[in-house]
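Margin note from the TA: students keep mixing up input and output lines. Inputs are the sequences; the output is the structure of the whole complex. Example:
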Amino acid sequence: MTSKLNTVGIIGLAAITSLAATPALAAGTTAGTTITNTATVDYQVGGVAQGQQSASNNFTVDRKINLLVEEVGTVTTNVVPGQTNAVTTFQLTNSSNETLDFALVASQIVGGTAAHGATDTFNANNIRIYRDNTVTGTVGSWDVGDTLLTGFVDELVVDTAIRLFVVADIPAALANNAVAGVTLRATAREGALAGTQGAAITETAGANTAGKDTVFADIAGVTGDAARDGSHSDNDDYTVQTATLAVAKSSRVISDPFNNTTNPKLIPGAVVEYCIAVANTGGAAATSVVINDAVPGQLTFVPGSILLGGTYTGTVPSGTCDFNGTAGGSYTAPNVSGTIASIAAGAASTLVFRATVN
Amino acid sequence: MRTAFFLLLAALLPCQALAANQVALDNSVFVERVTTDSTGKQRILLEEPKVVVPGDRLVFVLNYRNAGAQPADKFVITNPLPAAVSFADAGDTRPLVSIDGGRGWGHLEQLTIAQPDGTRRAAQPADVTHLRWAFQKPVPVGGSGKLMFRGVVK
């Protein structure tokens, strides 16, 4: 044994540290690929080159089934009561080493904790699954050009992620902050037949076969979706954000015919200013808020005195109206009316008008 | 994909029956699996490559033997890496490697690769395309030995 290299290197535990450095491989070598390793020896005997010797071995790469369903983004989808086509967004990735179909099921959580920590309190209606059309329309967001799926994704190639939209209709008459949780679960199915959902896939049990075996490598998804079952899942949820309005009315005396504006009294001929304050304590803006107020018969409306969109100091109704705003509104005896375009969540707005005492 | 049997690394035996050539070479491959027992101690198992999926670590073992009647000189073993295998390491066997399909050779730490911006970076194990062990002394009659390297299924 005089050869310098005729003892094998010790490949013991010291080499374990290099395991952590294994490169992150995605889907990798296609299932069924045969890997052949061939080594050759060249040598001389008595100074004469001899015939080359070679040795080979080969094995087949098996099928690794791995997929990932992920909610896109980390926030709930805000909806309003009665909204149609409310969208939650997911991403499905085929990390297997073979093109596969994926069966899809969108289901609702009933009670319990939804994706973003809130308690599930209602169910959405008419749940559908769409696949994003990455050529036309708004790529990455749901639009009419996206494809409505009939229970499966067809022929998803290796290492490809697609965006899926779970679209549902929200029932009417829901309270602010009501939550509906949804779950999207994808299960790997056999590929290779375009247009048709492939057969279910089972892991190769027991002894190895000569051909391509199947190994499930998926991680666990939501509760009830175990690791290595050929499927993966994730949750998302809808949260109702609606406007909740509170109204308060206040008044002040501006002037009377004798004291004018100095300590005016409510005598006939006095001018009174009214303020109708509307506060939105809900989670969504209230738009096109129409305020109507009938002027009592003992008063006469002062034409052109309506101010809209004024401010309110403090909380309705305990605070005070600032009696300001922009001219607008209309008067059709006996009603004063005005429309405030939008009152944001947590904000307040006012309608102010004047009348004289008969 | 043959019948299953498990080997502890330490139990790897010297090469068995090699062909009756002047120089015999035997090439085998194992899947390296690391298990952690209840005490947290890691054990490496080498298995026959029965279930192999991307990301698995492979150990290639080359056994050679001079079965002839005279010493074998200028003894060179060359192993091109299969396309679907990424080189990881070769233990302490210190092979020459090529990162350009077998044109240039050197030890991995000596090689660099040109990058698109004109600079050169150190070659990484994943860049290796060929391995070569060039023996500096003749293999005597009856002399034998074993070489190994690791790779990862791409």
